[in-house]
Amino acid sequence: MSDRGLRVVWVYPDLLSTYGDQGNALVVERRAQQRGLAVQRTDVRSDEQVPTSADIYLIGGGEDRPQRLAAERLLRDGGLQRAVDNGAIIFSVCAGYQILGREFVNDLGEPQKGLGLLDVVSTRGEAERCVGDVLGDVDERLGLPQLTGFENHQGITHIGSGARPLARVRLGKGNGTGDGTEGAWNDTVFGTYMHGPVLARNPQIADMLIKLALDVNALPPVDDQWYEALRKERIAAALQPA
Amino acid sequence: MAGNPEPLSARAKLAVTAGRAAAAVSRAAGRGSGSVIGGKVALRLDPDLLAEVAHHLDIVLVSATNGKTTTTRLIAEALRANGGVVSNALGANMPAGITSALAGGSEAQYGVIEVDEKYLATVARDVTPKAIALLNLSRDQLDRAAETRMLAERWREGLSGSKAVIIANADDPLVVWAASSSPNVVWVAAGQEWKDDAWSCPACGGVMQRPGDDWFCGECGFRRPTPSWALSGDEVLDPHGSAWPIKLQLPGRANKANAATSAAVAAAFGVPPQTALERMHAVTAVAGRYDVVTFQEREVRLLLAKNPAGWLETFSLIDAPPAPVILSVNARGADGTDTSWLWDVDYSKLAGHPICVIGDRKLDLAVRLEVAGVDFQVCDNAVAAVRACPPGRIEAIANYTAFQDLRRVVGN
Ligand SMILES: [Zn+2]
């Protein structure tokens, strides 16, 4: 697999990079390199075309007006949809997650069309912002350990029949619908409200994205001692809030 | 300008007295200086007190995400060339702390006041400042702060009717957006290393073009104003093009920028740049920041960095490798409880330094450094970290409560 390398795109850092989610790109990049893969990372600004032939696309969280602008520009660009048609993997967080859905409510309070790559619809919560450590069980089909993350959002996301919840929360709000779901996924497109950034807290998800992109079942192990120590600490913190 | 201070109203006097009593009780109970509690009590008794205690002073407000405490000190030092200054030097920068500080300055001519970004518009309305210095705006405390661009918008709305002269950083598009609603702005090319909060035009949402030191929006024409003052290396260029040397004891480019802005503020009050800059030399550590403390036979330099922009400026001022670096991060209430911002700091810049990691969130830092591909060791506490470093100078960089913890341990 090392002859092919891995092409990673960080989508719209000028608009959607407010909550440290570029860490997700850094973690994917690092863990692929540790497996001997040549990684080509491209940061695509919102006045540039989204390439259609990369392997993994990462989209982060952002503030309300930038979210509206990003959705408009991505819809006009069309590159992400074509990338998915080409078999690309997309992993999105918070505002980026909402944009990938069919619809979200923008900063003007109006419903806005999303990219329709995930069967979800998002609205704005009336309640207080959800802020804090989250603990959840990842969809068993994905075969991953517990989800740990930090949520910091006010959105509510409803999942349609074309997607599955990424996890069920034990502690925290997740999708904010009150049914305990957190995030959503279909075969190649993933969304979550978890910051942290989430792939630093859950390196197994980063590895899963790499495996999906390369169409392999396993990756050589890497030293996870600090990731594991952090996970243990944050899971304990979620169970025993200060 | 200043002069014959009008006496405070009876109600204001009562409020000041009650506030002092509350502060004294708070001090006696071992809860710090008591200035905030004193101010709160006083403001409750007389909501107009801030305006009253400010009335006889020529007020300068200083606000920013980073550098406001230091800049407040520099301006205060410069203005003392002309007259007495009262200032909230310890950084109590919300209305209660400001009221308390000003209430103690009945003899002063100037009030030099640091203001929390979120309160700038309110305080500016209450105290009728002569000048307002705006240094920078960037992401800070993600879990509760208002959006950075929204803060700029609130500044813009709050300052649009102000008669104050605004001394503002021409190199920060968000600051320019906030200041340019005012008729009377002095632009200072003070620089801004951190750019990641202003790639999107605050006016129209277009993508910002940033060739070299310039910046402009390709869509609406919003662009960098022509500065009349500038930081140029180790010198300040005044509006006549004369260069004045900066001889600060404080380290780093960011503090030179603070000095340039302070010189422009001082000039607005008739203090010549040379006098102002010479006086700024007297400022050493500010609330423990930049202090060098001897501890365990090592020289520990204490550096505060609270957010990505602050860490970036701090990395540029530390000694070159192999100088050891201690990093400490907490996520308590005053720090913001979301540590995601660590991923917006480019820790690969520390490659080559021996690094020791401490603080409540040392494991977040450990993963961050592991992904950055730099070597580090995780230590139990500050004493262990200092002992793990070779004798000589150590650069210790910490965020807010981690910095306070560190000061206590090393006896600063
Ligand atoms: Zn524009």
UniProtKB/TrEMBL annotation, chain A:
- Entry's family note: Belongs to the CobB/CobQ family. GatD subfamily.
InterPro entries, per the entry: Class_I_gatase-like (IPR029062), CobQ_GATase1 (IPR033949), GATase_3 (IPR011698), Lipid_II_synth_GatD (IPR043702)
EC number(s) stated in the UniProt entry for this protein: 6.3.5.13, 3.5.1.2
Q: In which pathway does it act?
A: Cell wall biogenesis; peptidoglycan biosynthesis
Q: Where is the CobB/CobQ-like glutamine amidotransferase domain?
A: 7-202
Source organism of the structure:
Streptomyces daqingensis
What this protein is called in its record is Lipid II isoglutaminyl synthase (glutamine-hydrolyzing) subunit GatD
Subunit-level organization: Forms a heterodimer with MurT.
Listed under catalytic activity are: L-glutamine + H2O = L-glutamate + NH4(+); beta-D-GlcNAc-(1->4)-Mur2Ac(oyl-L-Ala-gamma-D-Glu-L-Lys-D-Ala-D-Ala)-di-trans,octa-cis-undecaprenyl diphosphate + L-glutamine + ATP + H2O = beta-D-GlcNAc-(1->4)-Mur2Ac(oyl-L-Ala-D-isoglutaminyl-L-Lys-D-Ala-D-Ala)-di-trans,octa-cis-undecaprenyl diphosphate + L-glutamate + ADP + phosphate + H(+)
- Name the catalytic site residues: C94 (nucleophile), H195
For this protein, the record's Gene3D superfamilies field holds:
3.40.50.880
Q: Which UniProt keywords apply?
A: Cell shape, Cell wall biogenesis/degradation, Glutamine amidotransferase, Hydrolase, Ligase, Peptidoglycan synthesis
Q: Name one Pfam family in it.
A: GATase_3
Under PROSITE patterns, the record lists:
GATASE_COBBQ (PS51274)
Kindly list the positions annotated as binding substrate. R129
Taxonomically, the superkingdom here is Bacteria
Function, in words: The lipid II isoglutaminyl synthase complex catalyzes the formation of alpha-D-isoglutamine in the cell wall lipid II stem peptide. The GatD subunit catalyzes the hydrolysis of glutamine to glutamate and ammonia. The resulting ammonia molecule is channeled to the active site of MurT.
UniProtKB/TrEMBL annotation, chain B:
InterPro entries attached to this UniProt entry = Lipid_II_synth_MurT (IPR043703), Mur-like_cat_sf (IPR036565), Mur_ligase_cen (IPR013221), MurT_C (IPR013564)
According to its UniProt record, this protein's enzyme class is ligase
Can you give the residue ranges of the Lipid II isoglutaminyl synthase (glutamine-hydrolyzing) subunit MurT C-terminal domain?
304-402
Catalysed reaction, written as an equation: beta-D-GlcNAc-(1->4)-Mur2Ac(oyl-L-Ala-gamma-D-Glu-L-Lys-D-Ala-D-Ala)-di-trans,octa-cis-undecaprenyl diphosphate + L-glutamine + ATP + H2O = beta-D-GlcNAc-(1->4)-Mur2Ac(oyl-L-Ala-D-isoglutaminyl-L-Lys-D-Ala-D-Ala)-di-trans,octa-cis-undecaprenyl diphosphate + L-glutamate + ADP + phosphate + H(+); beta-D-GlcNAc-(1->4)-Mur2Ac(oyl-L-Ala-gamma-D-Glu-L-Lys-D-Ala-D-Ala)-di-trans,octa-cis-undecaprenyl diphosphate + ATP = beta-D-GlcNAc-(1->4)-Mur2Ac(oyl-L-Ala-gamma-D-O-P-Glu-L-Lys-D-Ala-D-Ala)-di-trans,octa-cis-undecaprenyl diphosphate + ADP; beta-D-GlcNAc-(1->4)-Mur2Ac(oyl-L-Ala-gamma-D-O-P-Glu-L-Lys-D-Ala-D-Ala)-di-trans,octa-cis-undecaprenyl diphosphate + NH4(+) = beta-D-GlcNAc-(1->4)-Mur2Ac(oyl-L-Ala-D-isoglutaminyl-L-Lys-D-Ala-D-Ala)-di-trans,octa-cis-undecaprenyl diphosphate + phosphate + H(+)
Q: Which GO terms describe its molecular function?
A: ligase activity
User: Per its UniProt entry, which superkingdom is the organism in?
Assistant: Bacteria
Q: Which residues are named in the active-site annotation?
A: D338
How does it associate, per the subunit comment? Answer: Forms a heterodimer with GatD.
What job does the chain carry out? The lipid II isoglutaminyl synthase complex catalyzes the formation of alpha-D-isoglutamine in the cell wall lipid II stem peptide. The MurT subunit catalyzes the ATP-dependent amidation of D-glutamate residue of lipid II, converting it to an isoglutamine residue.
Q: Which HAMAP family match?
A: Lipid_II_synth_MurT
Family, as annotated: Belongs to the MurCDEF family. MurT subfamily.
**What is the designated name of this protein?**
Lipid II isoglutaminyl synthase (glutamine-hydrolyzing) subunit MurT
UniProt organism field = Streptomyces daqingensis
